[in-house]
Design a protein that fits this description.
With about 375 residues, the chain is an alpha/beta fold. The chain has helices spanning about 55-70, 85-95, 110-120, 220-225, 260-275, 280-300, 325-340, 365-385; strands spanning about 5, 10-15, 80-85, 105, 130, 150, 155, 160, 175-180, 195-200, 210-215, 240, 245, 305, 315-320, 355-360. The protein is built from 8 helices and 16 strands.
């Protein structure tokens, strides 16, 4: 028998499946490496060299050029590699540009709440906070576009995303700050609606952590060059020199020393992305993965989506509810799956409601999502039988 026995959707026996996912990496960050990844395939020529050498600058610029090409990003937008992963990139944007006008923050999951904390407790800005519970989206119609607006495009810890960019005003006076770390390369983003975007290689590209990417539209550059915050800025946040944007940051001249190994790893992922059709190929793989997981959920009455509304449901970090499960139950399920080598890191985020979280980004193979279903059955039945 290769599957858990099912009778009218109800589990009757915890039978261990025979086939396992070939690559059981379903973590929502760092995420699965691209198919075919091998450390031996990374270009090692730059290792041991200065990032400010001719070669180092060339590789950093090449990485930036590949990101622009894969995203079809207009040249009106700058791309910079910065320290601190997506968190560092987003905080850099907040600390250098906020304070010029009122601020609105949208929060429906853990990281959005983190930006609220920064705005309130660190920058003391008294923002308008528009919240929603996990699995829901705030009322986007409440946003005041005369203010700067902070939001997560795809809530990694809740599995909830904004449906599109139509809710963002074309005639906005403030800037849009999009934490897009689980969205870039997984959705067709409307760059004319985004003034500031941040992400990290460790999500959809399956790259390494530690470095973030900061994308600035022309209105963000104008803000940087015409507004100086009242608070001091640490060196790693300084994007302006003598009143002008430090253009070198967006040409591979990083503020501090980057890991060139991580850069080469990102280049590998970007070249892989190019080989499968660029952003369209990446989006197609994510869509296929989330559709396969939807099929698994739909066939089981004990499994559900935290984001019930499909129009706002993430297609990358998919958060699932498990009937009758508490945190201990989920921990036991995830532990069994890890012990068997069937699925790694599938427990939901620590601050989210108890449940599972399955990464469906482009570096995961659809066949592995499909193979995961019987193992979820087995783990659920095994834990339930032990209670």
């Amino acid at each position: 028998m290769t599957d858990t026995t099912l009778v009218t959707g109800a589990l009757i026996a915890p039978v261990k499946p025979a086939a396992k996912p070939a690559r059981p990496y379903f973590s929502s960050g760092p995420c699965a490496k691209p198919p075919g990844w091998d450390a031996a395939r990374l270009n090692a020529d730059v290792l041991g060299r200065s990032h400010r050498s001719k070669l180092g600058k060339q590789r950093l610029q090449y990485c930036i050029d590949l990101m622009r090409e894969m995203l079809a990003l207009p040249y009106t937008h700058r791309i910079g590699i910065v320290p601190g992963s997506d968190t560092g990139a987003f905080e850099m944007a907040m600390w250098t540009m906020l304070g010029e006008r009122a601020v609105t923050t949208l929060a429906w999951e853990s990281f959005g709440e983190g930006w609220v904390t920064d705005a309130v407790k660190q920058l003391r800005l008294e923002p308008e906070v528009i919240r929603a519970d996990y699995g829901q989206l705030p009322d986007l119609a409440r946003v005041d576009w005369s203010s700067d607006v902070l939001f997560t495009w795809n809530g990694t810890t809740s599995g909830v995303r904004v449906p599109d960019g139509e809710w963002i005003a074309d005639d906005r006076e403030g800037l849009t700050f999009a934490d897009a770390t689980s969205a870039v390369f997984a959705y067709d983003l409307p760059w004319n609606k985004i003034d500031v975007a941040t992400f990290s290689w460790q999500k959809v590209l399956g790259g390494e952590g530690a470095h973030g990417v900061l994308i600035l539209g022309p209105r963000a550059v104008e803000r940087l060059e015409n507004y100086t915050p009242t608070w001091p800025l640490p060196k790693v946040f300084r994007l302006v020199s003598k009143g002008k944007l430090a253009e070198g940051v967006f040409k591979g001249e990083t503020i501090n020393t980057p890991s060139m190994l991580a850069v080469e790893d990102a280049i590998f992922a970007l070249e892989w992305a190019k080989s499968i059709g660029g952003a369209k190929g990446l989006i197609a793989r994510s869509d296929a993965n989330s559709a396969a997981l939807d099929k698994i959920v739909g066939a089981r009455d004990w499994l559900g989506h935290l984001a019930v509304d499909e129009d706002i449901r993430s297609r990358t970090s998919v958060c699932l509810t498990v009937e009758g499960a508490d945190e201990a139950f989920i921990k036991a399920m995830a532990g069994l799956l890890e012990k068997e080598g069937a699925a790694f890191d599938v427990a939901g985020y620590r601050d989210a409601p108890a449940g599972l979280r399955i990464w469906c980004g482009a570096t995961v193979d659809t066949a592995d999502i499909e193979a995961l279903g019987p193992w979820l059955d087995w783990a659920y039945a095994t834990v339930k039988a032990s209670k």
